[in-house]
User: Fold DUF6891 domain-containing protein from Dactylonectria macrodidyma.
Amino acid sequence: WRVRSGFYTSDEIVTTIAELITDETLGITLRRAKRAVRLVVAAEWVAQLERQQAWPPEPTISDKLAKAFSSLERNRKILARMNLTCCQTCGVEEISGDRDDDSRGYVFFHEQDTEGVIAGGDLALAFGSFTKSEKKTRDVGDIIARSLRRAGLRVEWKQDTGRRIMVRCAEWRRRFEEDED
Assistant:
């Protein structure tokens, strides 16, 4: 899923997976693990490039999300991050550390969400207002949902601050550069 996500370089993927399978007691050194993983990742990288070449030229869901997130940050002072950390708890902690006095709220999706959308699900967005105010949080959610819709995304959100904003995703596509190895 990491290759198909489009968020990682091949070296980042190789290192992450190799560190997971390294086991000195079994004689699997990090160097040996990286060599083995690199072969698999290289094949997946080529397959992803081939899939990517068949995509139509119009903006992908990822492109539309990036546009909406950029607009939210620039125009609405809502911090917006794609593929942020491992989970929602860590994501809220990290994005809270990025806030300043002007920050109105936040929106993000994390690695588990990315993995889920690549497996064929919709994309769930975490959001909030940095306050305990239900009204301010709902207002932030409304702004996010409108921005996503303006960017051409299909959004499901019923103004329930206890539920994440859902972006309908028929197929996750995020382009990456061909010069990665």
About this structure: The mean pLDDT is 95.
